[in-house]
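tool=predict chain=A
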Amino acid sequence: MVAQGGVPPREQWSGRAAFVLATVASAVGLGNLWRFAYVAGENGGGAFLIAYIAAVAILGLPLMVAEFALGRRARADIVSAFTFGMRSPRWAWAGWLTVFAALAIVSYYAVIAGWAWRYFGTYLIRTEVGGGSEAVTAHFSQFLASPQTLAWQALVLALASAAVIGGVRGGIERVARAVMPLLALIVVGLAAYGLTLGAAREGLAFLFAPEFAALARPQVWLAAFGQAFFSLGVGVGTLATYGSYAPGEAPLARSAVLVVVIDTCFALVAGIATFPAVFAFGLDPAHGPALAFVTLPQVFAVMPGGAWVGLAFFALLAFAALSPTIALIEVAVAALMQARGWTRRRTALTVGGVAFIAGVPSALSEGALATLRPFGVGVLEAIDRSASSLLLPVCGLCVALAVGWAWPRAEAISAATRSPGWQASAWRGLLRFVVPLVLAVVVVGSFVMA
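tool=predict ok
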């Protein structure tokens, strides 16, 4: 069946619940379960949490609603969504920039996801990862330096591409329905176990009892706004793309609030699962990106039942990393299907292949390409910094300008909320004035603090 003009009819989620579930799945990933814990650890725990919640309310939620509206209004890919009904076709560049951002992020995101899948496989076959600090660090370093990182990156991209080939309902929605209940069960179980440890009170205090003096440090706020971008998935076109598949009756603003609440709860429960264990064994909560792959394996090695806890934790990381990878690939697939007229299968295989090739430098950044140090850091970290500090804020700014300024007020409010009122006016005011200002500060501040 084809629509008028020979273009395939736009696929849709099976209902509002599926739309929310798939969007939550696209957001809940390494940003919540790996990045949130170590960024909170590096930025004062409870103080960071206050800044993060403020960032979600001021920046994340308004942009999420705007992206949903952008996609559903056009019922098309991110490039077509930016140009739909616009007076100038130049808005297409914003769409293609967003596609580029999605590809840039998935190129290294799949590498980190591959780390999680490798550790999941290691614990699954009961291979020893534990030992003292030096042994665990050496194990991780040897893995990063080996070319096997490419194999795990390829596995993640192959699984994600297969889901995208299955289509919106048959692939992406089906994966979300299978994965999200599993993730919820695992993260709640790990948090419950963490609360039984002797340092549970100390870990909870670190996460929920803020040192308010830390809020005076600009880097805490910059980290919080950057984490909100990374965690919610704004600025890379996934929300607009998924919004384009939303049923016409789905209330976008309420759906966005629900997604934000669930996403934030996952991050908090993951923190409850992590910090009591870290404090119970006298380790450093500010260990940075290595928290999941160096610090926690030391904990699993000495805690009762640690092998099973480690298996559950890395299963959580591995499966949580899959849905965001799917979403990032879908952004480029939807755009190229529209632009080139390719089949979904051909497009997904092409995008997956391009993402793999683009990710090779990141996969080898601690191995064969360890001497390549752009901006004084490894390739993977350089791409991550560039994407989070520049690409994502610029793409978010494009969304804010398109929906907040280029659209007429009545059309924007109708597309986003369907009910004009003070909430809709507040949302548009944030989108027009506050969000662009915050994004400018984040971009400038990130480069100043670098």
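Confidence is low (pLDDT under 50) at residues 1-7. Residues 15-449 form a domain with the Hydantoin permease fold (CATH 1.10.4160.10).
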